[in-house]
UniProtKB/TrEMBL annotation:
Protein name: GTPase Era, mitochondrial
Originating species: Oncorhynchus tshawytscha
Domain Era-type G, chain residue ranges per copy: 53-265
GO cellular component, as recorded: mitochondrial inner membrane; mitochondrial matrix
GO molecular function, one term: GTP binding
A Pfam family it matches: MMR_HSR1
Length: 371
């Protein structure tokens, strides 16, 4: 059940028909383009309607808040990799939702992290830079918070606060995710008051004691950073949504909000564009998702991939062969598994997901090699 908060009223949002489940192919959808066709379509002039509208939406939050899951539901197809482990998304990815005369550009970002963590875990620099660069070019920011994390749900992540403070002129909405996992729904009111400093769209929430709004932000000087560390929330959210990103009907409420909020402007992409990712990038991200899901601790983070084969059969099937590189022989044993069962499982499930994305049969083969 999706809820939207506006000013001081907590009300049940109007439901509209359920969007397609992202785990199943959409009817009447065309097969996913091959690489050359995809690149050609990305540079093709948009098929601009007469009264076009556009909205660039940056989705940010702490690692594992559900950003990619939300993006997939909004698009109606699983385009972005999702796992329960942090840093599944390694760089900014773009999704395009086109409805009638409106184009919503979704900017799915890595979870906000710190330079110290990037260095400690040998993460890509893109995890540090992409969320900030994305907010700078957005016309709306969606801040996602995992309310099932009882240790962190009452305080915005410090990196999120820094990002919002750096770009205070970009409108932002708060999305409380995984509300289905919260036993006491009354907790949502307390969490909302904390994360908004008791203020939504400039009006006080009549929920509980109102927390004094923070000082005006104009930059990120040292004294301001010190003040941010004691700040729980952000007093400038325009709206608050409470939903479960895995529920298409819940997400439809937010989707309608985004469509209505689009402003007159020229489309940036042709209406057939779904993402700026190439098919090969989607393939490697999907394989990484399964590696993160089934392999322990640091193993999947130290692995790299190389596509050895990409062959379109005459019958429409797609043959893909991917080589997985591991750093240690012990890691190789874990990836292969007993009698090859683990690598076979990863290949089978990743292949099934790719078949759903590309809307045709995908035969995926994986091999493992020491670096």
């Amino acid at each position: 059940m999706a809820f939207r908060v506006s000013i001081s009223i907590f009300g049940k949002s109007l439901r509209v028909p359920r969007v397609a489940n992202v785990s199943a192919p959409l009817e009447n959808a065309s097969p996913f383009l091959r690489t050359a066709e995809q690149l050609s379509l990305l540079v093709k002039d948009p098929d601009q309607p007469e009264n076009s509208k556009v909205l660039r939406v940056a989705i940010i939050g702490a690692p594992n808040a559900g950003k990619s899951t939300l993006s997939n539901q909004l698009l109606g197809r699983k385009v972005f990799a999702v796992s329960k482990k942090v840093h599944t998304t390694r760089s900014r990815a773009l999704g395009v939702l086109t409805e009638d005369d409106t184009q919503i550009i979704l900017l799915d970002t890595p979870g906000l992290t710190t330079p110290t963590k990037v260095k400690r875990h040998q993460l890509e620099k893109s995890l540090l830079e992409d969320p900030w660069n994305t907010v700078k070019e957005a016309s709306l920011v969606v801040v996602m918070v995992d309310v099932s994390d009882k240790w962190a749900c009452n305080k915005l992540d410090f990196e999120v606060l820094k990002c919002l403070t750096q770009y205070p002129d970009v409108p932002a909405v708060l999305v409380l995710n995984k509300v289905d996992m919260l036993k006491s729904k009354s907790r949502l009111l307390e969490i909302t008051a904390d994360l908004t400093c008791g203020v939504v769209n400039g009006r006080k929430l009549q929920v509980r004691r109102v927390i004094k709004p923070p000082w005006a932000q104009s930059g990120l000087r040292k004294e301001q950073l010190r003040a941010l560390k004691t700040q729980q929330g952000w007093a400038h959210f325009k709206d608050v949504f409470m939903l479960s990103a895995v529920d298409g009907e819940d997400v439809e409420t937010l989707k309608r909000y985004l469509v209505v909020g689009a402003k007159p402007g020229s489309w940036q992409y042709h209406s057939d564009v779904l993402t700026d990712q190439t098919p090969e990038e989607i393939c490697t991200n999907t394989v990484r998702e399964k590696l993160l899901e089934y392999l322990p601790k640091e193993v999947p983070y130290t692995m790299t991939q190389a596509i050895d084969l990409w062959h379109d059969r005459e019958n429409g099937e797609l043959d893909i062969a991917v080589k997985l590189y591991v750093k240690k022989e012990s890691h190789m044993k874990m990836v292969i598994g007993q009698a090859g069962q683990m690598v076979a499982r990863i290949a089978r499930e990743a292949g099934d997901d790719l078949s759903t994305v590309f809307l045709r049969e995908v035969k995926l083969r994986l091999s493992v090699k020491l670096k």
